[in-house]
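Example for tutorial group B:
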C-alpha cells in the first residue's frame, strides 16, 4: 500500500512538471520576439516589490533612543514676521512643554511692522523662559530668514537647538523632550514630522507633506542627507557654528533647512523622529502656499546628487516602467492574463505598503487621498517640476 501511494505521488509530480513545461513552451511560443520585453517586466516587478518591502521595514523599525542619565537643556528658536496673531495663538504651546532640564524659547522678530514687537514684550513678562531679539525694519534686505536663524543660534544658551516657525505648534507637551531624547553624543541633527491637523476627505497639501516626510525618512535611513524640515528640526549649536552654514549665502530663502542638514552631516549622524508626540501641527494659512512649497521642493531637488535622485525615485520609475510595458503587451493581446496579474500586483503592492506606512505614522485617514495621489502622481510631479523652472528666480 505504501509503495502504491508513493508511485501515485511520483506520477502526479511528473505530470505536474510536464504540464509546467508545456505551459512554458506555450507562453514562449505566444511571446515570440517579445520574450525579453516580458521578462524585463517581471524582473522590474520583483525589484519593485522587494524595494517596497525594504522601505516598509525601514519605516516600521522602532527608533532606538539612547538611555540618558542626565537630560540636556533645550533652546527653541522661532522666527516671526508680521504674525502677531500667530504669536497669540501658538506661542503658548511652545512655552508649556514638559521638560526636566533647562528649557528656553527664543523668538526672533524678522523686521515686523505690525504689533509683533509689542506682543513679544507682553509675552516676555508672562513667561520667564521666553527671550526675544529683533532685526529692525530699517535693516531689512531682500530676505532675513537665515539672518534670523543665525541670531537665534547665537542667543541660545543650550547646545540642542530646535528650529520652529510661529505658523505652527507642537502636537503635545512632550514634543521638545521627544526631540531631545533622540540625540546622543554622535548625533548633530534630528529631523521630525510636520503636517496639518484638520483633514478633508481629499487633502492634497497634507498628502504632499506626508509623501515628502516618507521620502526624507528613507533617505536619512540610507545615509543620504539632502532634505530638512524647517518647521520641525533640531541641531547642535556647536556643530552649526563650526560649519558656518549660512556665511556664503545669508540672503537666499531657498533651502535653509536643507543647507543645515547637508552641512551638519559632515560632522556626525542625522536622525529621524517619527513618533506622534514629536509632531508639529501647521496652521491652516500655510495651506495656501502649498503650490509654492512644491515649486520650492522641486527647485532644490534639481541640485541633488545622482545617488540621492536615484534613491528617491527608483521605485516610481520602476512602477511606471512596469505599467507601460504590461499595458503595451495587453494592447498587443499577448498573454493578457499574465500581464493583468503583473499590473494588479504592482498596484496592490504600492497601496498595501502605503497603508502600512500610514498606519505606522498614525495617518490612516489619509489612505484614500494617498491612493488617488499614487495614481496621479506621475502627472503632478511633472507639472510642479516644470512649474519650478519658471519660479526659479524667486528661490535664488
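The residue assignment follows.
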Amino acid at each position: 500500500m505504501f509503495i502504491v501511494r508513493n508511485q501515485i505521488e511520483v506520477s502526479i509530480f511528473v505530470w505536474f512538471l510536464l504540464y509546467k513545461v508545456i505551459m512554458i513552451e506555450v507562453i514562449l511560443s505566444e511571446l515570440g520576439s517579445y520574450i525579453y520585453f516580458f521578462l524585463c517586466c517581471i524582473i522590474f516587478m520583483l525589484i519593485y516589490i522587494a524595494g517596497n518591502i525594504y522601505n516598509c521595514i525601514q519605516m516600521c523599525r522602532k527608533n532606538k533612543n539612547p538611555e540618558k542619565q542626565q537630560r540636556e537643556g533645550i533652546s527653541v528658536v522661532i522666527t516671526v514676521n508680521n504674525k502677531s496673531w500667530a504669536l497669540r495663538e501658538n506661542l503658548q504651546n511652545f512655552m508649556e512643554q514638559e521638560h526636566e532640564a533647562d528649557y528656553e524659547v527664543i523668538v526672533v522678530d524678522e523686521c515686523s511692522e505690525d504689533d509683533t514687537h509689542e506682543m513679544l514684550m507682553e509675552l516676555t513678562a508672562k513667561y520667564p523662559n521666553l527671550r526675544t531679539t529683533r532685526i529692525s525694519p530699517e535693516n531689512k534686505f531682500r530676505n532675513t530668514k537665515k539672518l534670523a536663524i543665525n541670531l537665534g543660534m547665537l542667543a541660545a544658551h543650550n547646545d540642542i537647538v530646535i528650529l520652529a516657525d510661529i505658523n505652527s505648534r507642537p502636537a503635545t507637551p512632550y514634543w521638545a523632550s521627544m526631540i531631545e531624547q533622540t540625540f546622543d553624543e554622535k548625533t548633530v541633527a534630528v529631523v521630525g514630522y510636520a503636517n496639518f491637523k484638520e483633514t478633508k476627505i481629499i487633502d492634497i497639501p497634507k498628502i504632499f507633506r506626508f509623501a515628502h516626510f516618507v521620502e526624507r525618512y528613507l533617505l536619512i535611513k540610507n545615509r543620504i542627507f539632502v532634505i530638512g524640515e524647517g518647521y520641525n528640526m533640531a541641531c547642535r549649536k556647536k556643530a552649526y557654528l563650526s560649519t558656518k552654514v549660512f556665511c556664503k549665502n545669508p540672503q537666499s530663502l531657498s533651502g535653509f533647512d536643507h543647507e543645515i542638514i547637508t552641512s551638519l552631516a559632515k560632522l556626525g549622524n542625522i536622525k529621524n523622529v517619527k513618533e506622534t508626540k514629536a509632531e508639529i501641527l501647521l496652521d491652516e494659512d500655510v495651506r495656501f502656499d502649498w503650490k509654492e512649497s512644491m515649486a520650492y521642493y522641486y527647485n532644490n531637488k534639481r541640485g541633488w546628487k545622482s545617488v540621492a535622485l536615484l534613491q528617491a525615485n527608483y521605485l516610481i520609475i520602476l512602477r511606471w516602467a512596469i505599467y507601460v510595458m504590461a499595458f503595451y503587451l495587453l494592447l498587443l493581446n499577448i498573454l493578457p492574463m499574465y500581464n493583468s496579474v503583473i499590473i494588479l500586483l504592482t498596484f496592490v503592492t504600492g497601496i498595501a505598503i502605503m497603508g502600512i506606512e500610514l498606519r505606522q505614522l498614525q495617518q490612516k485617514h489619509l489612505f484614500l487621498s494617498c491612493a488617488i495621489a499614487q495614481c496621479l502622481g506621475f502627472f503632478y510631479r511633472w507639472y510642479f517640476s516644470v512649474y519650478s523652472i519658471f519660479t526659479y528666480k524667486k528661490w535664488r
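Residues 202 and 372 are 9 Å apart (CA to CA). Compare this with the pattern of hydrophobic and polar residues in the output above.
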